[in-house]
Every structure is written in structure tokens, then in C-alpha cells.
Amino acid sequence: MDMPVKKKYMIFELTKAFSRDGNPYLRMILSDSGNLINAIMFDPRLSFEPHKGDLVEVTAVLQHFNDKPQLKVSEMLFVSASAADTFLPKSKSDPQAMASELKRLLENSIRNPHFAALCKRFFDDKELWDAFQVMPAAKSVHHAYIYGLLEHTLGVVRLAIKITPLYPHLNGELVILGALFHDVGKAYELSAEAGFDYTLAGNLLGHLVIGGNILNRYMDKIDGFPEELKIHILHLMASHHGELAFGSPQVPKTGEALLLHAIDDLDGKLGAVAAIINRDGVAPGSWSSYDRILERQIYLPKQK
Ligand SMILES: [Fe+2]
Ligand SMILES: [Fe+2]
Question: Which of 86, 105, 133 is the last residue of a domain?
């Protein structure tokens, strides 16, 4: 039999539930500063009321449930109330290096003075830019870790810079600008405290509307911003999810909007594949468990 181990974790997700015969249990996702693991605690008799974000010391046995590692917790002690700084999952890339690369790529590729003014307003908007740099790109699914929004945005901007020269009839700078801003509303949609949760604006408006409002506010302050370009930028924001079923009020109706949607989708899906492989600890030559969002299992090839 496996020996129980003691370890500190942050409670990342917490659900209180009852089994069919009426016994209480806790279903949790625990974070140890980089990795998330499912955990279950039957018949929890605790000396404290657990909350998301709490740092706890857990005594548990590692098991497998539905092909995924899971901790069966026998004891859980309260350590402190907030451990977000050290215990939330983080991007593996250095945030400062990503932030300066993002700024440099924009500086080198944007020539249109109105677009350059828009980028400057964003990078000078300390509150927003600071939040943008630390936020996850999603609550789950893809880039769901600290600095994830920055990493995903950089990924989409890099793709835009590589791909737009292949379609010279499109306005490449507009696609690059759309790549920078498409998820900017996520800086206010999610909160990075404790576990990742939606803010009130995130819940009631969503990042497409929040992002559109931010850009409207910036563009209104830039003298002579051409009206049609304003609308085109807002269209890129509004349509980037590609389909009405995924929250876009309009499908992409310009070449630039279709291209932005495609590269956003590509970076998001490849991020999700990496997250699944990491989450399940998939070894080369084996399969992940079934993923409900991608609706498939993922295979990790043996050789590169
Ligand atoms: Fe989005
Ligand atoms: Fe995105």
C-alpha cells in the first residue's frame, strides 16, 4: 500500500458535495506552485472552513482515478489565508522577457501612426498593462496560469508577424494590432487572486465587450483616427471567437478578421494540448485521458 505523504498546497478549486448515501466530501484541485492535481477528501472533519486560495497542509495518498492522478486526502490543516504569489500555476517563460519582446515586436512592425498611438496608450496605461502582464488567459482550457495572457498574446502576435507577409493584399498591421488587443479585456475579466475567477465585469460583460470598450476609449482620444479603421478594429475584437456559439456577436467578415480568428484558435488549441500533456503527465509514446473541451485524447509521439 502507498504511504501517505504530507505536503503544502494551495486550494485552487473547491467543491463541497454529498455522495449518494448522503456523506459529505470535498472535491478539490490543489496547486503546488506549478502543477495542479485533483484531490478528494471523504468525510472531511476539518478544524477550519476551507476556501479557494487557502494554503493547506495535506496528508494524502496518490491514486489514479479515470486514468488521472488524484490525491486521496485523509487530513488537511490550515496554514495561511493567501498563497497566491507562490502557489498559483505560472507560465514557464520569463514574464519580463515576454513583455519586452511583445513591445519590441509591435514597435518594429507598426508603421501606421494611429495604430502606433493606440499601442502607446496601452503600454502607458499602467493599471491595465500591469494587470495584463500577470493575468491567466483563461480560467481553464488554455494558458490557465499566471502570465498566460501575456504568453498567449505574444504567441498570436508572433504568428501574425510571420503569416501576414504571405497575404500582402490584407492589411497586415491591422492583424498584428488585433493580435495584440484581441484578449485585452481578459485583464479585467479574470482575477488572479486565490484561484482564477471571473470578476463582476467578466461575468456580466465578458472580454469581448470589455476589450471593445477599452479600445473605444483609447481611439476616441487619438485625433483623426479614421472612422472605418475604428470599426474594423472593433470588428476584429468582436468576431475573434469565430462563431456566434462561442460568444462572438458577428462572425469574421473581413480577411483580416478571419486570419486573426485562425491564429488565435491555433495558439489556443496548441496551448491546450501542452496543458493536457502536462496535466496528465503523458509519457512519450502514450495517450492522455479524454479531454472534454478538445473532445479527443492526445497522443505524445515517441520521437521528434
Ligand atoms: Fe478571446
Ligand atoms: Fe485569444
Answer: 86
Regarding whether 44 and 101 lie in a shared domain, the answer is: no
- CATH code of the domain containing 10: 2.40.50.140
Residues 58 and 201 grouped into a single domain:
no
Among all bound ligands, the one having the nearest atom to the CA of 151 is 2
Please name the residue ranges forming H helices in 135-206. 148-163, 172-181, 186-189, 200-204
Residue finishing a domain among 51, 86, 121: 86
Number of domains in the chain: 2
Q: Which ligand is nearest to the CA of 150?
A: 2
The pLDDT of residue 193 is 65
Q: Which ligand is nearest to the CA of 206?
A: 1
How far apart are the CA of 264 and the centre of ligand 1, in A? 8
Is there a contact between 182 and 268 (Cβ–Cβ < 8 Å)?
no
> Which ligand is the nearest neighbour of the Cα of 189?
1
pTM summary value: 0.82
Q: Tell me the per-residue pLDDT of 70-121, one tens digit each, with 9 for 90 and over.
A: 999 999 998 877 666 667 777 888 999 999 999 999 999 999 999 999 999 9
Q: Is residue 206 domain-resident?
A: yes
Check whether residue 27 and residue 135 sit in a common domain: no
Q: For residue 150, what is its C-alpha cell?
A: 501575456
Do residue 119 and residue 265 come from a single domain? yes
In which element (H, E) is residue 63 found?
Answer: strand 55-65
Give residue 156 CA to ligand 1 midpoint distance, Å.
11
Question: CATH code at 157?
Answer: 1.10.3210
Which ligand does the CA of 142 lie closest to?
Answer: 2
In angstroms, what is the span from residue 282 Cα to ligand 2's centroid? 25
Query: Which residues, including other chains, have CB under 8 Å from residue 169's CB and lie 6 or more apart?
Result: 255
Q: Within 13 Å and on the Cβ side, how many CA atoms surround 215?
A: 28
